[in-house]
Write a structure and sequence with these properties.
GO biological process, one term: cell wall organization
CATH superfamily: LCP protein
Protein name: Cell envelope-related transcriptional attenuator domain-containing protein
CATH topology: Aminopeptidase
Family: Belongs to the LytR/CpsA/Psr (LCP) family.
Keywords: Membrane, Signal-anchor, Transmembrane, Transmembrane helix
Order of helices and strands: HHEEEEEHEHEHEHHHEHEEEH
Strand content: 15-25%
Helix content: 40-55%
CATH class: Alpha Beta
Strand order of the largest sheet: 9-6-1-2-3-10
Organism: Lederbergia galactosidilytica
């Protein structure tokens, strides 16, 4: 969702010399920034859990987005929790974005600079607004039967509500591992389609309306000025590479069960922290040639 968000506001095509960048705006242009992107399992309820937890690191110096999906059953230490440890998605239920940010910092040593949150209805609205033609994916019969999709197995073009069901499915042998993989694949497809739209003249003319229609479905702590700053940066320095990873990493967890939490992924914290830091610190060269 973060890339859709950046591209969405980047489509306003604001030139960087049209305003002065100060304070936090200047940091967004020159420093690596960590976004916490949340998909919330809510249709308007007051209390809900996070269905998707994704850390997105944007590095303007080499024009790279790095996406880290944290599996929601990861067993982590939650500040103030009566059992000390619980599934990471319960942190949002107990204390919202602030407690989840603190939980991520304490367990993985990574500070979160900004948050972006989308609930179920917001996801449907954003996808149907940005990609009205839908996303083509391979849907197997297990997903069709479990999620009550009206289609044949194989390649299908999915729109908002059906695409939400597709990325949320977890009732097969791969469980959440398969779900995270589908979420990342769909996100990359959305990015490709957005790039196609904004790189055409006709697409550019439609962007202001897309921005207007989409903003109401996304909650963020980014200020309007920070959004403008990111907009200018994304278009003046286009993203050249997107890398993805998953937490926990391979061989970085064991399956455990606890009375208060149920089935969890008990992490080898040292292994996952080292993998995350290596992933975020690896440099990627910028190619300025056309």
């Amino acid at each position: 969702m973060i890339t859709c968000f950046l591209l969405l506001f980047g489509c306003q095509s604001i030139k960087k010399d049209q305003f002065q960048l100060e304070g936090k705006q200047d940091e967004l242009v020159h420093e690596s920034t960590n976004f916490l992107v949340l998909g919330v399992d809510s249709r308007g309820e007051e209390n809900s859990r996070t269905d998707t937890i994704m850390l997105v690191n944007y590095r303007p110096e080499d024009r790279v987005l790095k996406l880290i999906s944290i599996m929601r059953d990861s067993y982590v230490k939650i500040p103030g929790h009566k059992h000390l440890f619980d599934k990471i998605n319960n942190a949002y239920f107990l204390g919202g974005e602030e407690l989840l940010k603190e939980t991520i910092q304490n367990n993985f040593g990574l500070d979160v600079d900004h948050t972006i949150t989308v609930d179920f209805q917001g996801f449907i609205s954003v996808v149907d607004t940005l990609i009205p033609e839908g996303i083509q994916v391979d849907v197997d019969q297990t997903i069709i039967d479990d999620m009550n999709l009206e289609m044949m197995a194989g390649e299908n073009t999915l729109h908002g509500e059906d695409l939400l069901k597709y990325v949320r499915f977890r009732h097969d042998e791969r469980s959440d591992f398969g779900r995270v993989e589908r979420q990342q694949t769909v996100l990359l497809d959305v990015i490709d389609k957005m790039n196609e739209k904004v790189n055409s003249f006709v697409g550019m003319t439609k962007i202001p309306q897309l921005v207007h229609d989409t903003i109401k479905n996304v909650e963020t702590d980014l200020s309007p000025q920070e959004i403008i700053t990111l907009s200018s940066m994304v278009f003046s320095q286009p993203i050249e590479q997107i890398d993805t990873m998953r937490i926990p990493v391979k061989d970085g967890f064991t399956n455990q069960t606890y009375d208060h939490a149920g089935a969890v992924l008990e992490l080898n914290f040292l292994k996952n922290q080292e993998a995350m830091q290596k992933f975020l610190s690896e440099p990627t060269p910028v190619n300025d040639e056309p």
